[in-house]
Amino acid sequence: MTRPVLAANGGYDALRRDFRWRLPARLNMAAQVCDDWVERDPERLAIIDLTHGARRDVSYGDLQTLSLRAEAALHAHGVGQGDRVGVLLSQSPWTAAVHIACWRIGAISVPLFTLFRHDALAVRIEDAGAALVVTDDEGGPLLNGLGVPVLHLSDMPVSVAGRHPVAQTGPEDPAVLIYTSGTTGAPKGALHGHRVLTGHLPGVEISHDRLGQPGDVLWTPADWAWIGGLFDVLMPGLALGVPVVAARLPRFTPEAARDVIRAGTVRNVFFPPTALRMLKASGMALPGLRSVASGGEPLGAEMLDWGKKAFGLTINEFYGQTECNMVASSAASLFAPRPGCIGKPVPGVELAVLGPDGPIDRGEGDIAIRRGAASMFLGYWNRAEATAEKFRGDWMLTGDRGAWEAGYLRFVGREDDVITSAGYRIGPAEIEDCLLRHTAVAAAAVIGVPDAERTERVRAHVVLRDGAEADGEALRDHVRAHLSAHLVPREVRFETALPMTVTGKIIRKELKRRALEGDA
What we know:
30% of the residues lie in helices and 25% in strands.
């Protein structure tokens, strides 16, 4: 079993000072999230399954049984150590079981999103060289014509006669291959070792104000094919003995979230920013939660203020990316939030803002992570050159711009999202946050579009609340009044929806592409 990696007591500074990564020579995530718990307490609750309507409680013993059935099927198909296995399943106990089975064998699991269609699946499956893909009735038709062997859940053996030896893996041995969203070209597979789960634990623990308290139950509407669902929620929860809720939401709605929280007795939630914005727009309050964490895009002061009213607590923001996740976080139980900032470096992680000559204390630069963080990837799958380009010496470049403010990390924007206008470098997040404070706005995205005079001009793409009037000048006046004249969008365009990644992030690059193709 895995115990919390952070000391039970002590403030943030002490946790940072005293923390050390403890990675044994032999490490296998199947043991961390399942087998070790079975040896200690097989009846302990692991997953609260709401995927079929009625609640079904799945113990660690039940989860191990499912994983052994999956493992036997994988062995029967010739899967061995180092083979890649696609996992085309949404939230369910079987999803966890298949990943566990892969890791026990020493194979590499490849999470695949069930909303992907033919081309997206084909690119990932082919690039990974998957030996087979495990799926169900929902995913089976999506794999037709892809030429990859398919293992259907209905084909799993009913029982298992014996057990195969567990692969002798260590922290650096490959375990999971997670593809980036592909918003900047073809998707790349980030290959992680068995240390990746341990690497997530400090950030997960503090973002939920010391996750693992009596009565804690964890849930996210984010799909488990995304690193945010798989390693910010599912696997850390299982490792720490915190029950995880599995629920399939065909579409996120505030009402569906409320029902899951009630049925699953949820106390700890990871809500992506988009989900929070939808909750805010609905006016729904969700009292009774102990912690709410969010990551992916900065929330801003307005959303944090709303969170206190809606949840009765402070939303803890966190930061990371597929290549190295959970590296900065807020933690209301350890330090006060600073509006406009993500938080502070997670214990065990060394963050820097890099200027041309290295780390800087003042001014804007490139957010980077020093080698040694346990959640850092091993490299891009079959892309040595791209891996090398990701680093500057010992620093992994995130591709994001940021700055330090009194020890807090402020996110400015993606390096290619920063707008250069009339000599100013403008981060879109601040303007978006301001627009969201206007009562007419449900969602907003800000980009820079080419301008012969200013290099770029600021354009806002806005989705209005139901019944709101499209008044671009009023929104421009709102930004002018709350921020600065140079941050006022010179254009406001009204949209019915904004382009989003599967993880709920706004794809500003798509809006820029449309502008370059002539909609300006």
